[in-house]
Structure formats: structure tokens, C-alpha cells
Task: structure prediction
Amino acid sequence: MAGIYQNKNFGTGNENNDAVINMEGVSDLIIKNYMSDKPVVEFDGKGGFIGGSISNPVINVEISGIEIIGPNGSILWEQAMANRLAENKSYYGGRGIAIWKGNNINIHNMVVHHCPASAIRVNRGDYVTIHNNTVYSNTWWSRSAESAIVLAQSEHIDESNAFKMRLTHNFVYDNVNKIPYYNPTYVWNYSPIGGLNCGNYAECEEGLLSCPWQCRYGKATQNYIIDGSGVYVTRNEDTYLFGQMEVSYNTCHGNGINGVVFHRTNRGTVNQNIIYSNGIVPTLEPEEHVEDWHAGASGQPRQPYSGLVLNNAESMKLWSNKVAARYETDFAFQQVKDNSGSSPPLQAGGNNKVCNGLVSINPSTAVTAVHDLSVCGIVKASSSGFPSSSPTALPTHSPSSSPTTQPSYISMVPTLYPVMQPSSLEPSFERTPLTLELSLFISDIALQMKPNKKGTKWQPKITFKLKDEEKKQVGGATITLSWNTTFANGASKSGTVAKTTPSNSKKLGIAKIKLPAFKLTGKKATDLIDVGMISILADGYYYRSELNSLYDEHCPLFSFLCPVLTIALLSE
Result:
């Protein structure tokens, strides 16, 4: 139901509060909004939905239709830095959703923002789908080097080699690490990066800044930031031996390092993502807008990557991604191998576009350069040909008093409504690469339907027109809707309906969709139907809901702010 749900002792100043909802051992449960309600989960402790362990895993759970708000807007950089080497209180490391062990998990149509650490993460999972979520302004204050959406240390529960792990259709931006990584378990001569023998440097044992920067990673003396991306799949190669992973149709921009990363994970497909203007962590070049947290990133430039990275990843497929790095000297596409080794060639791939930045992909023919920044999602550019900095634009609650500055953009907000089951997300790799926008128009927003002649039933009908950015109508597109209604006896019913637009000249791009017929009398009588968008799929197009017709002259139909279309029975 609608309302704001908070953790115990919320707002009291206690910096070690528990989560709002304990997910330990939860199974066979759906947690979602009721119809068009917009419930909010707000926390200032461990997080929103947290739990799962070896003895009490999370199994067969769906979470959807809820906004999660963390305390980032109330935390100052000085406070978070003071916490970095101290107790590490939960206030500075809370997560939106964190499942630490589980399987058959479906997280979708969520809005998760201002969480100090990750927005959505699943560790030690299998059969996990995270899709159609809006995730922004997270990972600011944690010392744990986290990313916004994470799959980590996944564990197969069977020997199926099908696609079982999916991160798709997410909108991910302004997720930046503003605190250097710190791991109190690291001994002075250990480092997981760089390949140096840190024991050979006496200054490292003494904790001096003259110790090589690679050996200071995770230590008290780390004064740089090289972690924190948008979508991050990591450390799965040793634990996930059966099954494939997919990262597709995500839009990632304005994040700290990269938009999408596959790290020490094999058998992945990265398909039709739009990635631009990441790499917000400074490179030590002068920033147009200097912020307080830049002081903690001043000891070493971030790595020259700000796009899509395959780091020690094998058996990878890379199709139809569009990437623009922040700077021309940043890598937009990059394969990385330990000890400067040569990366294995892609298993398959092609039709990838780079709009700005460098490319290091094997084979190089998998990526082609284009000079139109709008191809990679950048619409508003400065006179230099690349976006200038401007404050973060947010769809809902305001950011902190010092928002992360990032390149300007026109956002592509996904829909916030019904379930798309994992089985319907099987990727189609042979599609034409996405090149044109696709939006939906409706002639009569104030939809009212008349009953049949006998006055016993009524059947809602909707006519849509699909158009591209040139206002040309688009044929061959499949529209899938969901509907939900409540009967006179209090029971509810829902379903889906799909229609493909004709490609002939007379009815090109016009979809006439009929919903089921509903009764006017009796226990199952109803006079209101809520309709939501599941998907619009067309070869060569990507769907932008914010360009749809306005709903009640307020906001675009089927966007986050107006996710539901209500159809009413016309009163005589």
C-alpha cells in the first residue's frame, strides 16, 4: 500500500540502525506495490531489503514497484571520511537491496536512490533477474568500493548453461564513489592490484605515502578512487561454472568510473547498452566544477576508462552497444588482462559503436567509430563537441546540497510498471543494431468506453501510433501491455495483451489493442481498468517513454511519473 516505511529508530541520530525489511530466509514471496500505489521505503541504517545467508537463503522472491531512499542527502563528505577509518557505522554503508545468498530472485520496476553503498546487489545467487529499475545517486559515502547494480560471487545451483543471470533495461546514473576504498583486513604487504611485491617496500610497512600507490589500495593511505561503476558483474569465474549472464538494454551515464563492467566473469553477453559520459571521478586534470570529495581522489588519477570494460572475462559476446567515453583519451571499449597479458578474442560480436574515446577490443572489427554523439545517447553538447558539466537532474527527491556534477543530458526514463517475467527476456542477438528512437502516441488520453448494446459487458480498446524521431510511423513493432482491475466483490484480476503494428501503407504503425470484455453487473462487475506498459520491441529501435503523449497534460504516458493509464466505463 502507499505510504513511507522506515527502519526502527529512523531519524533519531543512531548511526547503527538495522534494515527496514529483514530478508533472512524469506521464500516464495512477492513484495510489490498495490495497483498504481507508490510506496516508499526510507532508511538510515543497513538498508531497505537486506538478508540471505548460507543457512537462510532468499528463494523464489520478487520485489517490484517500490521507491527506496537512502540518507545520502543528509551526509557530508567530512562525516563519511571520518567514518572511513573508524567503526564503519551502517549509516554510511547502507544498501537499497542486498541479497547475500539466494536463487530465483526477480527485482524490477524499482526506483532506488541516495543509498550510501550499492542500490541493488545479489551475491552468491543463481537465476537472478534485475530489470527495468531506475538507480541513481548511490555509492557516494561507503568505504567499500561498491557499484550501483552488482552481481558478485554467483553460485550455480544446477548444471544448466542457459541464461540464468540477467541485468537488463535499467537506467543507471550519478553513482559515484566519493570515499577512497578501505579494507581493515588487508595486511601492509598485501594488495589485490598491480602485481607488485609490496613486501619489498619498507615505506609500505610504515604507512607512508611514498609507498607505491598500488600497495596502498584499501589501506589507510589510499588517497585516490578507482572503483565505483554503474552495472558491475564481478568475481564469478571460480564459483559460477554453469550458466550464462546477460547485461543488455541498460542506459548508464554520469557514473564514477565505467558504465558497464564484466570483471573476472566468463560466459557473458553484453548487448545493446547505451553508455555515455561516465568517468566522473577526476583524472587529475582541472575539473570545471571542483567539489569537496575531489580531495580524496587527488593522489592518483583514475584509470583511463569511462565506458564498457571486460576485465579478465572470457567467452564473451558483445553486440550493438553504443558507448561514448568522457574524454577522447579515455577508453570507451576496453579489454583488460592481468599482468598486461593479451585478452582472448570475443566469442562473438559486432555492430558496436564508439562515439568518443579509444577502443581496445579483440577483434577490433567488433567496434566501429561514429561521429554523431547522439547515437550514443548524448543529445545536448557544448561547442567543443562534447557535453559540458551541469548539476545532476533527478526525477524525484532532491539530491544533497552538493550534487555530483556531470555532463548534461536528456534522460531516457524507463517505465515503472508491470512484471516482465524472466522467460520473456531471452535476448535476440540477430536483431538490427538500434539506431532510431521509438515513441508511442495516443489520440484520446481521456479514455472512456461504452457498454455493448445489451448493457451487460464492455470491452476497452486502445489505438496507439508508433513513431520514430522523424515522426514516421513504425511497422512491425510489438507492444505488450498489462492490465489490472478490481471487481465489485473485492477480488482482483490481471493479465497481458500484445499486438504487432502492421507494416502495410494503410495502417502502418497503428496498433489497435483490445482488452478482455468485463461485466457490468454481478460480483465480477468493474468499471475501471489500469493499463501498464511491459515492452515495445522493434528491430532497429530503442523505446523512449519520455517522448510519449502527455497523460492528463501532466507527464508522458507510461513513464515513471505516469506509469498507468486508467480506462473508465462511460456513464450514460
About this structure: Residues 380-403, 405-436 have pLDDT under 50 and may be disordered.
